[in-house]
């Protein structure tokens, strides 16, 4: 997978940066520096092209996911994360997914995957309109959800559905409501606070 790895301080956690539709592995690097410049960074480019725009999985239309492809891409990304941890020497148990939009959505799929456990995740403008039978226990996990009250892509009901996915599985959820489908200073600050154990 096309990616960027930047080494941080010794024994530091690792941000797994997952961009939105049309982005690439460079997009969220500034965000990682704002969140904590001392952490390792593994920033990955989505392997799917939708009309020339990078994505992490296929879809049939807005909010209509190709479930088979989502499962395939989740497995591929999870396998790549294991390989990268071995290659670059970072601790898998200290990986923190940081995703925006499509990147946040593949992050949710990874979080629900049985073969990996994350303690913290920062998800901006997430959407996950899928019937889930997976009852994975997420108790002890801290999740930031930054959602838009006037998001033209993700309705308030859709956002509440994402909250429910995590809370019903025992995760400690921090909600930040912003205006639209966006990364904001309020979301960045909440991410910093969560990482610094102030939330």
TrEMBL record:
Q: Under the GO molecular function aspect, what terms does this record hold?
A: hydrolase activity
Key words of the record:
Hydrolase
Report if keyword Hydrolase is assigned. Answer: yes
InterPro entries of this UniProt entry? AB_hydrolase_fold, PLipase/COase/thioEstase
Residue intervals of the Phospholipase/carboxylesterase/thioesterase domain: 4-190
Give yes or no: UniProt keyword Transmembrane: no
Q: Which NCBIfam families match?
A: quino_deg_MhqD (NF047577)
Q: What is the protein's given name?
A: Alpha/beta hydrolase
Q: Name the lineage.
A: Bacteria, Bacillati, Bacillota, Bacilli, Bacillales
């Amino acid at each position: 997978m096309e990616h960027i790895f930047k080494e941080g301080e010794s024994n530091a956690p690792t941000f797994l940066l997952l961009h939105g539709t049309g982005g690439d592995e460079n997009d969220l690097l500034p965000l990682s520096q704002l969140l904590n410049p001392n952490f390792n960074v593994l920033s990955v480019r989505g392997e799917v092209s939708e009309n020339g725009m990078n994505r992490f999985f296929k879809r049939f239309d807005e909010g209509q996911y190709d479930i088979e492809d989502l499962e395939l891409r989740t497995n591929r990304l999870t396998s790549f994360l294991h390989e990268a941890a071995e290659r670059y020497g970072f601790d898998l148990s200290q990986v923190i997914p940081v995703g925006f939009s499509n990147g946040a959505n593949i992050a949710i799929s990874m979080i629900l995957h049985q073969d990996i456990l994350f303690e913290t995740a920062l998800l901006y403008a997430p959407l996950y309109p899928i019937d889930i039978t997976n009852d994975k226990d997420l108790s002890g996990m801290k999740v930031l959800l930054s959602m838009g009250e006037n998001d033209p892509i993700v309705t308030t009901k859709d956002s509440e559905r994402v909250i429910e996915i995590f809370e019903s599985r025992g995760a400690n959820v921090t909600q930040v409501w912003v205006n639209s489908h966006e990364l904001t200073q309020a979301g960045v600050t909440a991410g910093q606070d969560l990482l610094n154990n102030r939330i």
